[in-house]
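Final report, closing paragraph on structural work. Over the funding period we assembled a curated collection of sequence-structure pairs, and we close with a single example.
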Amino acid sequence: MPISGSIANRRRGALVIASAVFCSTALTTADPAPADMPFPPVPAPRLDWKPCVEGPEFDCAVAKVPLDYLDPGRRTIELAVVRRKATGPGRRAGTLFFNPGGPGGPGTVQMPQNYESFPREVRERFDIVSWDPRGVGNSTAVNCFTTTEEAVAWNAGKPAGLPVGEQQRAAWIAAFADLGRRCERRDPELLRHVSTADTARDLDQLRQAVGDPQLTYLGVSYGTFLGATYANLFPGKVRAMVLDSNIDPQAWTNHASDAEPRLTPFLRMGSDVSAAATLDQFLTLCGSASTAGCAFSAGGAKATGDKFDELMRRLRQHPMGDWTYGRTVADVVSALYVVHPGWTDLAARLQDLWQGRVPQSAAPSAASPVPVPVPVPVPYTGDEQAGSILCSDSPSPRDPGVYHALEEAAALRAGDAGRFWAWAAEPCATWPVVAANRYRGPWNEPTAHPVLVVGTTYDPATPYAGSQAMVKDLASARLLTNHGYGHTALINSGDCVREYESRYFLDGTLPPVGATCRPDARPFPAPKPRGGIATGGGGKAL
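Its predicted structure, as stored:
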């Protein structure tokens, strides 16, 4: 979710929906458009494809779209678009559009980084296209600082990960309130038009621009909510749609209620509980491995869990350099997103901290450098970009003073991960804008073709229950269960999920009802048996 989310190591900003949602003061609301107000027709944008400057195997283009689809003639904005052509000559089946999550994931960066994760036959038969959504990255972006130095100074003035103690809580709240005020001064009109519904209309414009009569789409994490929004705004245009690691639309929109919510989107979704369950799996599997297989292993599941709890208590009292408790918890949740090599690397960092050493590396954050080369200029993707979408789209409690109580309640049910997810949406408490044209349902418009929903059982951002809810909400959908770990099957699954997705994308064949998949490899290698019965030798194991 990052909901994340961004895909760590190969996807910029491992916290997808999580670590980047942010705030300001007085709430500014534009009068929302009536639900039955017709949107005027808009000509499809022209895409003048050219080889990308830094990666000629990819093509780049810019699409111009209306800022406000209700008033399309007034102001336009730009969308940065990237394409990788189908690799099988003469076999092209169409265009697959990809959204990498976030909210606020820059597709021009994350699609190239994750290109090899797409099923081989999909890469052969489809042009794969992604884009930086409005408000994000290389598109017309929300940027609330005049210089890079300003942004760096602001980021340095707030606690890392999550606040600990009254003084840090005050600093956190003040920092994000300041961010919201800066954003409102810079471009308040843009802030009112970066909703998921606005982006869904952009997606339909891009579909028309490439000449596809219907949409073929893969959305992960927050991209599932975007997909569900598109499917209900343009139900007749759905050719094939895979939604991977799903957000429950009812939880995201607070059931379309106008009342102030009691919980944040992530707590309504159960991200805290799912992250805690995934962390428990990490510690259990680590403890079942030797220290050669998992550096943090204490020789058993309980002992490894106790070791982790003791490390967290130690860091709350005595940070290790700039590795505070808050930063460490955020790093743990982030690192759980990608199993290979994320879990092994996380175990090594935790062991360093346990032994009193400052870790040499960490999982990428939303502000970290892109880990591999990409074919486009690396864009600015500050906290305000994810926040502008989340906070204007999905309601959160408006009183910053309640978040400490939410943290403590989340900690009771989800431990350290609960504290992280409780603060992830606090910046929305004082964000100044609600989107002018939100879509809040219904979610059951009959689509031209059924949707394939993929859910992973141990996901630290978007719970498996969100995928189950998505199937119930949509008019026609089939659930594929990935009995695995990490955030998104796209980068954590094996051949099983890819084969089902390939058949569906190519000819519409859905998995059987109740179909399941498992990862190709477990997170940590099991201890090797040594002699005796364990190796079939008959006698006692040594």
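The first strand starts at residue 28 and ends at 29. The mean pLDDT is 89. We thank the funder for supporting this effort.
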